[in-house]
Amino acid sequence: MKLIPNKSLLKNPKLASTKALEPTFNLANFRRNFESLDNDNYGSWPLVVKVSILLLIGVFIAALSWALPISSKIDEIGAAESEQQVLLASYRQKESRARHLAAYKAQVSQMETQFNTLLDQLPKDTRVSELVEGINMTGVGSNIRFQDISVEAEIENEFFIEQPIRIAALGEYHEFGSFLSGLATLPRIITIHDFEVNNPQPTLEAIPELKLVLQTKTYRSKEAVTQEALVDADASVGSN
Hints:
Blueprint: H1 7-11, H2 13-21, H3 27-35, H4 47-99, H5 101-121, H6 128-141, E1 145-151, E2 155-156, E3 160-171, H7 173-184, E4 190-198, E5 210-221, H8 223-239
């Protein structure tokens, strides 16, 4: 068997000797380089140690740069993106309102008209005596016995005035039902609140007589109060 020599190596013997002397990485040698360092003479350290230390310093500086300014910028970017989403949602909502603004205005105008119509249907005065008389007649027709009908102080709201009336009466369930139905037929707006039914004298010998306590409210227009105040003001000015 004949060995054929490499012609390129024969032509260039220096190249052949260089390739033969090329060092290979050895972990043991690399570790020994670090173990044999002279702390008093940094210039004598091996090149591989110097390069490794420089790389470590570069990695440390890069990590520090990331941890301080870059990470804070990332937080600012995240906060800006969150704010962008909030502003975008607000813009979409306002844009939707703007597109339906004409329809909203028409609905508001219709609601104001309906509300003013309802306010006009309220009486200008309470006429408490007539209302109490109507409640009394309804109770008599329902066979209940009144213990008390108290007219309480008026409550002023933004657009109307409430007149609470407390009622306490004795009777049976069916009579109370007939009485409440009769209240709904009175020619006034009457609402019922906070009613209570109990048996003051429980007995098994006869059908018990129950006690009904309820709060009713009627309403009147606030416009009349304003007009009365204006009339009184004009009268006081005229007298002066």
